[in-house]
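Help needed: design a sequence for this.
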């Protein structure tokens, strides 16, 4: 039986400085509406795949929460704690009455995702008075062919989707590392943008903290502000800021060292890292803040790809244990130190840099390891295609991947959509079937769902599509658009403003920007949140 704790106890635990993982078991789209500031989102539907990376130490003190007894699934946190316990986690608790109980206790609840990082971005702008430029002023400078560079602080996939005309991709941790190649003349204006606010604020302040002589400003409200002002974005561009020359690297190394000193960033060596990783009483994350391409080429075994700009703006997507040790890795210390400087300001006092980076360590290649899942009956893509063709009336496909991908990227023709943690609803909607193939983006999640579905369809042959939707698509089979066969509410993921279609997009942009700006006001009402101050 999982122990139940009160909101008073959780408040004490949040403030006691010890390691703690507060985890919300609801789907991201439900979590988005209202959750605790310190709660990371680990949906029950993907818990086995996500939790080992986010909470790597099995004895970590964990508190699970959901919406409370009056919600659609009042036992969700208890179910999640049971699954976590089956994985070997030994210190699980459930928050009494969930978020409803927290609010009744006087606790603050937040909407949105990546709230700690987003709120911190607004805090930074208020604290440092980070300079910004409205879209109309930037448009006039572009039209006048002014001496400036526009650096887009998002990853390439976001930049490729939409960018400011003449902008160049340079994700957050890369800014100090590469800026001198883009703006060697101190008279050149540097404009930093993202889609909204956080990454442009943090990126701009990074360059200012690094002591660059150029004038640096954030594009106010990013590409959303640009489009809301009536201007067209560019699409399909792939221009990335170049690697630094020797002179540029010399400047960035000195600049990052000064920033590290200001914000109390320390280094540890390989021996200390080995001791930390072997310590059963503390959690140590090893986070490689270089680009994903560099990580794939070679990385320290057991490290995780966490590009620095993304790590700062979405810390909860990489680490879920508060007060853990974060060891940041790069090749020359610049990106790791700049990232650590922000994590220190976010309150991660044990965020350090690995001296010498990857040099001298045994390296692995590729995207890193995946969580293993139990074996399950599978069907290959060609076999399923043949069965759908020959026996369409007795063959059913259930897609338990993202509703967003189901809509936007398409799905196997005739497939139903559902959520793994709500398979009972799928059973009711689909009814009896002779053959049920479960699929998702890949085969891992589908394999986990097979035994659960088999218990609900005891007379049915239940299998997982081995390579998932990805394998179906790569084999050249058609994908069907639309969202006609949903078995539950499409609130499994948060739909970003750009994910919506039609006339509502602009209103979603405005709502998002309003939400971000208002976060800083909530911080004043929340006694469990404080950011350290530095001279």
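Sure. Designed sequence:
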């Amino acid at each position: 039986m999982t122990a139940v704790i009160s909101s008073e106890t959780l408040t004490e635990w949040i403030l006691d400085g010890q390691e703690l993982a507060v985890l919300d078991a609801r789907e991201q789209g439900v979590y988005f509406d209202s959750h605790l500031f310190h709660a990371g989102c680990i949906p029950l539907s993907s818990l086995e795949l996500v939790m080992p990376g986010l909470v790597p130490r099995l004895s970590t003190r964990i508190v699970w929460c959901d919406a409370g007894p009056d919600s659609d699934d009042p036992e969700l946190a208890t179910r999640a704690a049971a699954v976590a316990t089956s994985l070997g986690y030994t210190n699980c608790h459930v928050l009494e009455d969930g978020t409803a109980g927290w609010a009744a206790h006087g606790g603050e609840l937040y909407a949105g995702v990546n709230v700690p990082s987003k709120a911190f971005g607004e805090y930074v702008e208020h604290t440092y008075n980070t300079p910004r430029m409205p879209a109309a002023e930037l448009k006039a400078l572009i039209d006048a062919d002014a001496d400036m560079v526009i650096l887009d602080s998002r990853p390439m996939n976001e930049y490729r989707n939409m960018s400011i005309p003449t902008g160049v991709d340079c994700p957050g941790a890369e800014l100090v590392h590469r800026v001198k190649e883009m703006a060697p003349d101190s008279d050149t204006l540097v404009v930093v943008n993202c889609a909204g606010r956080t990454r442009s604020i943090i990126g701009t302040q990074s360059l200012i903290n690094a002591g660059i002589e150029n004038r640096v400003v954030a594009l106010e409200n990013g590409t959303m502000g640009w489009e809301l002002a009536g201007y067209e974005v560019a699409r399909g561009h792939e221009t990335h800021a170049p690697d630094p020359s020797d002179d540029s690297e010399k400047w960035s190394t000195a600049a990052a060292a000064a920033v590290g000193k200001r914000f109390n960033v320390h280094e540890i060596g390989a021996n200390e890292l080995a001791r930390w990783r072997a310590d059963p009483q503390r959690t140590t994350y090893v986070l490689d803040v270089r680009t994903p391409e560099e990580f794939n080429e070679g990385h320290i075994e057991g490290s995780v790809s966490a590009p620095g700009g993304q790590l700062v703006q979405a810390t909860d997507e990489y680490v879920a244990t508060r007060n853990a040790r974060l060891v940041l890795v790069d090749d020359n210390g610049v990106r790791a130190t700049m990232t650590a400087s922000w994590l220190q300001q976010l309150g991660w006092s044990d965020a350090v840099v690995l001296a010498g980076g990857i040099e001298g360590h045994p390296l692995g290649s590729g995207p890193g390891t995946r969580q293993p899942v139990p074996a399950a009956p599978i069907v290959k893509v060609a076999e399923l295609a043949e069965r759908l063709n020959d026996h369409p009336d007795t063959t059913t496909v259930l897609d338990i991947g993202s509703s967003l991908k189901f809509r936007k990227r398409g799905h196997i023709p005739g497939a139903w959509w559902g959520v793994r943690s709500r398979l009972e609803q799928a059973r009711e909607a689909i009814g009896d079937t002779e053959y049920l193939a479960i699929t998702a983006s890949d085969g891992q999640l589908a394999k986990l769902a097979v035994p659960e579905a088999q218990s609900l369809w005891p007379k049915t042959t239940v299998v997982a599509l081995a390579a998932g939707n990805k394998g179906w698509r790569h084999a050249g089979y058609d994908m069907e658009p639309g969202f006609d066969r949903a078995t539950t509410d499409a609130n499994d993921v948060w739909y970003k403003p750009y994910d919506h279609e039609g006339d509502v997009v602009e209103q979603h942009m405005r709502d998002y920007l309003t939400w971000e700006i208002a976060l800083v006001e909530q911080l004043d009402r929340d006694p469990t949140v404080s950011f350290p101050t530095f001279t």
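DSSP finds 22 helices and 22 strands in the chain.
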